[in-house]
Design brief:
The complex is a heterodimer of chains A (117) and B (110). With 117 residues, chain A is mainly β. Chain A is built from no helices and eleven strands. Chain B has 110 residues and is an all-beta fold. The chains are: A mainly beta (117), B mainly beta (110).
Amino acid sequence: NAGVTQTPKFQVLKTGQSMTLQCAQDMNHEYMSWYRQDPGMGLRLIHYSVGAGITDQGEVPNGYNVSRSTTEDFPLRLLSAAPSQTSVYFCASSYSSGLAGFTDTQYFGPGTRLTVL
Amino acid sequence: TQLLEQSPQFLSIQEGENLTVYCNSSSVFSSLQWYRQEPGEGPVLLVTVVTGGEVKKLKRLTFQFGDARKDSSLHITAAQTGDTGLYLCAVKNNFNKFYFGSGTKLNVKP
């Protein structure tokens, strides 16, 4: 059971380049999400998905695209990288217990450290 | 303005000391989570509190959810160097969006 995996671990891009951050989970979780973490800002939600074929915007979606064609995979695309997108990116997944008012455990990947020059 | 305000932002203490960190909001939540994040890794869930006034204990860590379900505290008794890390509180709204506080960075010195 690998849990949540992310690739690559490190990436350096030039302004204007595009790339895809990969995220996969083997726990059959319905909910998957992408966050970025900047110093002093905690984690901010970029996009999330409650199941295959369903995605929605989080708190800071501009400049990022996602798709969810399978339960396992949730890639994050940077369309035209900007220095403001320099950050650490975390993918997470969780099982939806369906319990009213209960927030299910999120399992996080190890992160991708992205630098945009 | 952040939905969840955490304080203090930084805390540096000696091993064996006690400490309390806080997570505050003006909004009411059905549940609240605490995560710990170590350098170079993703956050790991410590606890979920769901009932106003609830107290949960995890070894030397005591978590409390405020009576009005707007705030929470984490108390660590006799801190150890292994407690060093970033402590984050988090909530999920009715639209499946998670919000995290900015965190308290704890350094426990030997």
